[in-house]
């Protein structure tokens, strides 16, 4: 698995990211505008670590879901 600066691409990158997210780690994903940090939003320890690293103790974080089914009704649009 990649770590600490090693770059992966293709299927190897996807599988490594899945494994790291499942383990509660934070992964960096390169996008057009820079890097995005991601963690498992259902893992409170991972979210706390991400908040600490980004210095965002209370500011909202983006959450991506495959569907709105898991959201409380007031948040579904």
From TrEMBL:
Domain of life of the organism encoding this protein: Bacteria
An individual GO BP term: protein maturation
Organism this protein belongs to: Klebsiella pneumoniae
Protein name as catalogued: YrdC-like domain-containing protein
InterPro entries, per the entry: Carbamoyltrans_HypF-like, DHBP_synth_RibB-like_a/b_dom, Sua5-like_dom
Gene Ontology MF terms in the entry: carboxyl- or carbamoyltransferase activity; double-stranded RNA binding; zinc ion binding
Sequence ranges assigned to domain YrdC-like in this UniProt record: 21-68
Pfam families: Sua5_yciO_yrdC
């Amino acid at each position: 698995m990649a770590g600490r600066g090693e770059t992966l691409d293709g299927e190897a990158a996807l599988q490594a990211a899945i494994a790291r997210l499942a383990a509660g780690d934070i992964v960096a994903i390169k996008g057009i505008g820079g890097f995005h940090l991601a963690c498992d939003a259902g893992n409170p320890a991972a979210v706390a670590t991400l908040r600490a690293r980004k210095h965002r103790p209370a500011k909202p974080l983006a959450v991506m879901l495959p569907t709105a089914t898991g959201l409380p009704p007031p948040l579904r649009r």
